[in-house]
Amino acid sequence: MSWDQLARDSLESAKDLQRSGSHAYRSVVSRAYYAVYCAATYYILRHRPKTAFANNWNNPTHEQLKVLLKALDAKTRPSSETLSRIVLLRELRVNADYRPSVAVSASIATNALIEASNVLKDLGV
């Protein structure tokens, strides 16, 4: 499976969770962010195929993601709006996955899906 396929699959999984009515809002947010992470990884590799990632991995750390996107040349660098969406989704995901005292509502999950869909579209996935 490629990074762009994984991005689309993760976004569809997030949508399926949201539609299920299971109140799995934290999982929706987590899947939405992962879709964006995969899309951004695909985008970086598409524009800089020989990018070296930390730890000799085949993908960036979450901390590297924005740095690598901002380091692309001006013609291919994502817009500041797209970068802001990625940062927002990472923050939502941290709350959803690691901060059980922070509430994650249906509206937050819906917003995460909207933002993730926009990022995938902006990155051409």
Describe the structure.
The chain is an all-alpha fold and 125 residues long. It has a single domain, classed as Four Helix Bundle (Hemerythrin (Met), subunit A) (Up-down Bundle). 69% of the residues lie in helices and 0% in strands. The chain contains five helices and no strands. It is globular. The two termini are 14 Å apart.
Which key terms come to mind for this protein?
single chain; 125 residues; mainly alpha; Four Helix Bundle (Hemerythrin (Met), subunit A); 5 helices
What's the short version?
The protein is mainly alpha-helical and 125 residues long. Helix content is 69%, strand content 0%. The model has no long low-confidence stretch (mean pLDDT 95).
Write the layout of secondary structure elements.
Elements: H1 3-20, H2 25-47, H3 62-70, H4 80-98, H5 106-122
Overall structural domain count: 1
Computed CA radius of gyration, to the nearest angstrom: 14 Å
Mean pLDDT: 95
Secondary-structure arrangement, i.e. CATH architecture: Up-down Bundle
Query: CATH topology, which one?
Result: Four Helix Bundle (Hemerythrin (Met), subunit A)
Structural class: mainly alpha
